[in-house]
C-alpha cells in the first residue's frame, strides 16, 4: 500500500491515483517478463546477503568439530564427556532466546538487530581462541549460543514475509544451502587455518576461531548497511513496484493486512496451541539430530577410520557440496509441482540408508559413502520441513512463531547429538547413529500426519463443508488466517 492512501485529497487526485495503480498492476500482471524482473530484483537484494550470514552462522557453530582435531582437547586437557559438554552448552541459550528474538526483529529494523547479533557472536568466536581451559571455552560457547539465537529464525521470518507460498521453498533451499556451503568451507578452512598450528605460539584450533570470528565481524558491518526490511517498509523497490508487489502478496495471503501487526506475547501463545506449529517443532527436531551429528562429529568419525586430521577435514567438503546441489534442485522441483510431503519422505529414507552404512560396515570407503547418502537425505529434508510448515500458516505472528519454535526444537536435536557420540563408542558409534535413525522415524510419522490431515481438510473445503465461515463479517474473515475456506494446505 502507498503512504498516500487514507490522506486527504481532492476527488480528482484520488481518482488519478486509482487509475495510476490500475495501470501499474496491468503492466506487471500482463507482462510476465516485467513481473519476473521485479522478483529477480528482490532475490538479488535479499538472498545473497542472507546466505552469506547464515553460512557464517553455521560455520561458527560447527567449527568446534574441526578444532577438535587440531589439539583442542590436549591443550585444554579435555577428557571423557568434556568435549561433548562444550558442544552441548551452545544450544541452551539458543533454545531460550529464539522466540523472544523474533519479537524484537518484528519491532526493530532487521538490519539493526541482525548486525548487532552478528557482531557480538563474531567477537565471541574470536575470543574463544584465547581460551586456556574448559571454563573459558564454555563461556565463549554460551555467549555464541545467546547471540546466534536470533539469526536463523529471524532470517527465515524475513524470507517467509517476502515470497508467495509456491515461491518459498526454492528460496528456502537456496538460503539453507548455506549449511552445505558452511560444511564445505568448514572442512577446507579447518584444514587451512588449522595448518597454522604453532604460528605465533597458538595452536591450530585457536587460529580457526581467530580468523573465522573476524570474518563474521566484517559481515556484521555489511549487514548494517545492506540488509532489507520487511516488504511493507522496503525502499529499494520503486513506488509502483512496491504497490504491485504488496497487492501480489495479499492475493496469496488473505490475512496480509494483519502482516503489519507486531508479534504479541498472547498471539504467540495462541499460535503455540496450533497442531501445525507443534508439528513443525517435531519435524525440525527429527532433522536436526542427524544434521548436527553429521556437522559436528563427521570429522571425528572419519579420524576413527585411521585417516589423518588433514584428510578427515578435507573429505567432509565434497559430501556437503553434493548434498547442497541436490537440496537446491529438490527445492526447485518441489515448488514446480507444489508438493512437499513426498520429498520429505524420500529424504528421510535416503538418510536412514546412509546412516546404516556408517554404522554397520567396517570398511572405511563404504562408511564414507554412507555419509554421502546420510547428508543428501537429511539436507533435502531441512529446508523442506521449514518451508512446508510456513506454507501451512498465515499471519505475521504465526509465521514468526512457527519459524522460531521449529528452530528452537531443532536445537534440542543439537543437545541430543552432543550427548550420544562419546569417544568411547568409536569406531562404529552405534548408540549415536541409532538415535539419529530413531528420530528420523519420528519425522516420517510427523510427515504422514501432516500430509493426511491437510489432504483431508482440503477435501472438506472443496466439498463446501467450511462455507458457513463465509457468513462472518469481512473483518472476522480476515482473522481466520489459514482457516478461511478459500485457503488450501500445501501437500
From TrEMBL:
| PROSITE patterns per record | MFS (PS50850)
Which branch of life, at top level? Eukaryota
Q: Which UniProt keywords apply?
A: Membrane, Transmembrane, Transmembrane helix, Transport
Keyword field contains Acetylation: no
Q: Which InterPro entries match?
A: MFS, MFS_dom, MFS_trans_sf
User: Subcellular location, in the record's words?
Assistant: Membrane
Topology with respect to the bilayer: Multi-pass membrane protein
The UniProt entry, under Pfam families, shows: MFS_1 (PF07690)
- Residues in Major facilitator superfamily (MFS) profile domain copies: 46-461
* Segments traversing the membrane: 42-59, 79-100, 112-130, 142-162, 174-193, 205-227, 277-297, 317-334, 341-362, 368-390, 402-423, 429-452
Q: Name the predominant localization.
A: membrane
| Keyword set includes Transport | yes
Please report the name of this protein according to its UniProt entry.
Major facilitator superfamily (MFS) profile domain-containing protein
